[in-house]
Amino acid sequence: GINAEYGVSETESIEETAAGKRLRLAKQYLNKLENQEARDENDAAANREIIAHRLQQDVLAERGRLEERISKRLCILDTSRSQLRRGHRLSPTCVTLTDTHIYSASKDGAITKWSLVEGGGRKVCTVRHPSGKAVFAVAASTDNTLLASGGEDKKVVVWDAVTMTTLKTFHKHRDVITCLVFRTNSHLLFSGARDRTINLWNCDEMVYIESLYGHQDHVTSLDSFLQERVVSVGGRDRSLRLWKVAEESQLVFNGHKNTVIDCVSMLNEEHFVTGSQDNVVAVWHLKKKKPVASHRNAHGPGSWVCSIAAFRNTECFVSGGSSGGFIKVWACAENYLSLSCLREIPMVGTVNSLAVNRGLIVAGVGQEHKWGRWWSDKKARNRIVLIPICVEDEVDR
């Protein structure tokens, strides 16, 4: 038949319709391919941006210059869930924390290992420091294979952290050992003492390396992070010193008059926080000789800051008072020029030592201060306190 409207036969109309359909489907297929290719290109570009960002973050983290802001996401879980662990007869003096274990020591010469893997703070074992005298410092290597302890007997003892047996005893310091720290991801150990020196030990070869001189008073606290450096405070000499081991040099920072700096911790490779006996917490920068920020009366009248621990590569840290009744969580402003208190966690007793990671605050709390018996709070108990925390987006993931 003839289609009068178009002047073509019905057969030709059907053939043209089928051809048009094939053409339409072909165009749709090509458009689909083009859209898919565009999406793939967008996804690839997005993936490249994500990978580049992660690589940049990794590089900054490796250099100790990563600054992750967590103050608005840091949550202290219900403090009623805090766990009290009894493992020491006398006041705990020091704690250290790894991904899997806690190690604590006290004036009774006991060193206790706690497991975070099984039971969330279950006691694994307790050993005695070889001399039986008070232990004032413990440090664990990042890989959780080595533990170091030191104290009243002036000896640095290196332990196998798995079996808790002694591997080596170092005799070099001439007075009480006050602080120990391992460089992160390394077996390089730093020890500080009342003899005003800092000694370096290679715990792979179990040998003494060298001594660092400069402090004019007791070395009261040490900290080290990723680079071959250690930061120290010298008590009554009012100084904070950053020792660049490889360069064989040091930077000297000066505290305010009439202060005794008791403790130090590194936020990152450029920023440090300290606590002092005049009840001040302070923030320091690598390129500034004086604190860039400080907060007076940090733990209430009659108290002083005797312990401090920083969340690595963030703006947050915690401090403990001698008798202020709280562990406080602090945050630095984005420019590090001011401090604010985020949270106060009630605590009875003297907070002699603190250690933190992204899931836990660990405190060594006792009736007495670690360095003396100027008072004894009978309401307090000699305990290791575990306070669960979280960073919100990490929980979501």
What composes the largest sheet? 5 strands, antiparallel
- The proportion of residues in beta strands is 35-45%
- The backbone outline, from C-alpha atoms, is elongated
Q: Helical segment tally?
A: 2
Give the termini separation.
Answer: 70 Å
Q: What is the strand tally?
A: 31
Structural class: mainly beta
Task: Summarize the amount of helix as a percent range.
Answer: 10-25%
Which radius of gyration do the C-alpha atoms yield? 29 Å
The chain-level mean pLDDT equals 88
Low-confidence stretches: 1-14
What does this structure look like?
This protein is mainly β and 397 residues long. Helices cover 15% and strands 44% of the residues. It has 2 helices and 31 strands. It has helices at 10-62, 392-396; strands spanning 2-3, 8-9, 74-76, 83-85, 92-97, 101-106, 110-115, 122-128, 135-140, 146-151, 155-160, 165-171, 177-182, 188-193, 198-202, 207-212, 221-223, 229-233, 239-244, 249-254, 261-266, 271-276, 281-285, 293-295, 305-310, 316-321, 326-332, 339-346, 350-357, 360-366, 383-391. The strands form 8 sheets. Strands 3, 4, 29, 30 and 31 form a 5-stranded antiparallel β-sheet that branches. A hairpin with a 4-residue loop joins strand 11 and strand 12. It is elongated and about 105 Å long.
